[in-house]
């Protein structure tokens, strides 16, 4: 159950707010943003709606705080780790990305799909998040003298990487929704190869 | 100017409705769906709003009719032509797709972005359109014994092609919005290679 344990010690307002945002992110795993109301959070946290309005001002602000935290989590979770080749590091990041989407499906979908639907602040967080995730690829490419990914920092590559992010989102969301018999290993194998695949036409023949 | 010439002969209601839908599609090239009101259409067509409500019932129905027509147009425009290799035919279709998005930018973006935003009927048309466009790739692959595209009809390939459609939309819309110095030729070269590139990881090593 997502119910929080009642705090035994008096928490600072900031710490309390942080804790409520974390709970919101957790709840977003199994329900869409639309379904995540102040009422739901109040019930799950076992505190009054009035107090929540005190912390967040309103539903909109609450959603923005939760989605921003979820985007930060995704960024942290998918950070390159270890010291393998760029392709091995990419494979690790993608694996954690796939698992993140699987474990936070409803919230992730409502972020990706909802970003297109008019809520300007959420759209901005989504854009920032995608930009941060893809920019990081170029940091890696710069650090690595002889990248085997073909990630040279040119306008064409930037454009293709942006498209690749849309490809990833679509494939992973769709796979989590309905795996169609495609295994996690098959999925990861194709995802890792897709970035060099998309960049292949740029290589000198 | 988009003003229609006043019809000299009495048109049947169906023909008149068709003509108004065509005008709507045309207007969608330079304005978003939100900006395409019954009022705008009435002014451009030089007929009364009352008559338009008679033909379409309301703004919602008018939008659905226009977007459906636009989707049909896109399907027709991007149909494979000629008798080249599958890759040559793909190149031709992509070229016409890029030009279509360029020439119908506002409407196309409001379809793609707006599909995510709650309007269920438009979302359906968008999904149908994308499915029709990608299904056609498999018709071609079946017809061609030795496809050089790697489009065998498996769940994994279907999933990747779905992702590729999202990739295409993102790259082309973004390129039309801001070409960043990437030429149409460079763009087309990378787009044509992206499909075999995405499918490359599935090829036996």
UniProtKB/TrEMBL annotation, chains A, B:
Pfam families for the chain: TetR_C_46, TetR_N
Highest taxon in the source lineage: Bacteria
InterPro entries: DesT_TetR_C (IPR054129), Homeodomain-like_sf (IPR009057), HTH-type_TetR-like_transc_reg (IPR050109), HTH_TetR (IPR001647), Tet_transcr_reg_TetR-rel_C_sf (IPR036271)
Start-end of DNA-binding region: 37-56
Domain HTH tetR-type: 14-74
Family annotation (Gene3D superfamilies): Tetracycline Repressor, domain 2
SUPFAM superfamilies recorded: Homeodomain-like, Tetracyclin repressor-like, C-terminal domain
UniProtKB keywords: DNA-binding, Transcription, Transcription regulation
Positions in coiled-coil regions: none
GO function terms (MF aspect): DNA-binding transcription factor activity; transcription cis-regulatory region binding
Name of the protein: DNA-binding transcriptional regulator, AcrR family
Annotated organism of origin: Nocardioides scoriae
């Amino acid at each position: 159950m997502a119910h929080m344990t009642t705090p035994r010690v008096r928490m600072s307002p900031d710490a309390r707010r942080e804790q409520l945002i974390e709970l919101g992110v957790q709840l977003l795993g199994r329900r869409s943003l639309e379904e995540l109301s102040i009422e739901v959070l109040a019930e799950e946290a076992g505190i009054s709606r009035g107090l929540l309005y005190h912390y967040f001002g309103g539903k909109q602000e609450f959603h923005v705080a939760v989605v921003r935290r979820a985007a930060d989590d995704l960024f942290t979770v998918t950070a390159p780790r270890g010291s393998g080749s760029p392709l091995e590091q990419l494979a690790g990041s993608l694996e954690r990305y796939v698992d993140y989407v699987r474990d936070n499906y409803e919230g992730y979908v409502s972020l990706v799909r909802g970003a297109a639907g008019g809520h300007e602040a959420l759209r901005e967080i989504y854009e920032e998040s995608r930009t941060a995730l893809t920019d990081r690829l170029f940091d890696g490419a710069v650090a690595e003298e002889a990248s085997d990914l073909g990630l040279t920092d040119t306008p064409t590559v930037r454009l293709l990487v942006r498209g690749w992010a849309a490809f990833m989102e679509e494939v992973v969301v769709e796979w989590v929704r309905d795996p169609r018999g495609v295994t996690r290993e098959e999925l990861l194998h194709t995802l890792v190869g897709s970035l060099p695949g998309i960049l292949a036409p740029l290589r000198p023949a």
